[in-house]
Amino acid sequence: CMQCHGEQGISVNPMIPNLAGQNKLYLVKQLKEFQAGPLSQGRPSGPAERHSRIMKGQVKNLENNDLWNLASFFSELPACPVNGNKVNGNKPEREIAERKPPKSARQCVECHGPQWRGTATVVPQLGGQKRQYLLRQLYAFRLSPNHPNQNKSPGQAKETRYHFLMSGIAKSLKKAELYELAEYYAEQGCS
């Protein structure tokens, strides 16, 4: 895990998520979805599915106890890197703190909360996550499950994702709104 996600759960790769401080049940749920494999005949078999060829290979032989231990380890790490996780190092802290959420974020608050930490243990924290990773996930939700093997956006060819709420929300957003949301969440604190 640490080779990609970092020794302290903070990845240096902008396309790989930070796991440090993430909700434990959310992490277990994601690991189980990776183990389950791709969407069945291009359609989800339940309320949520996720597929990544790389992650499936990493977790396929892990026992349930291993999944819980990994999730516990990463969820207990401090969520913020020492140097912070700012999209643009030139932006003053005050400007970031005073920035209002984009209009498209209004529907996000219900599940992800006003501080973007998740309102339930199976909902991911968004604050401080990597912009490129967030954008990639929004596109995965937007494109799945209708075109699971035909994703055209960068980095999507081997990853599909479906969630009964998020897929519909992402499909309703314009491309500019997806970018705006990803940047906004990445700029927020990652406590």
Order of SSEs: HHEHHHHHEHH
Globally, the shape reads globular
Strand order of the largest sheet: 1-2
Q: Any idea what the CATH architecture is?
A: Orthogonal Bundle
Question: In a nutshell, what does this entry contain?
Answer:
By secondary structure, this protein is mainly alpha-helical. The protein is built from nine helices and two strands; from the N terminus they run H-H-E-H-H-H-H-H-E-H-H. The model is unreliable at 84-88 and 147-157 (pLDDT under 50).
Structure description:
The chain is mainly alpha-helical and 191 residues long. It has a single domain, classed as Cytochrome c-like domain (Cytochrome Bc1 Complex, Chain D, domain 2, Orthogonal Bundle), CATH 1.10.760.10. It is 41% helix and 5% strand. Strands 1-2 form a two-stranded antiparallel ribbon. It is globular. It starts with a helix and ends with a helix. About 8% of the residues have low confidence.
What is the topology?
Elements: H1 2-5, H2 24-36, E1 48-52, H3 53-59, H4 64-75, H5 93-98, H6 109-112, H7 131-143, E2 159-163, H8 166-172, H9 175-187
Antiparallel strand pairs: 1-2
Helix pairs in contact: 2-3, 2-4, 7-8, 7-9
List keywords for this structure.
single chain; 191 residues; mainly alpha; Cytochrome Bc1 Complex, Chain D, domain 2; two-stranded antiparallel ribbon; 2 strands; 5% strand
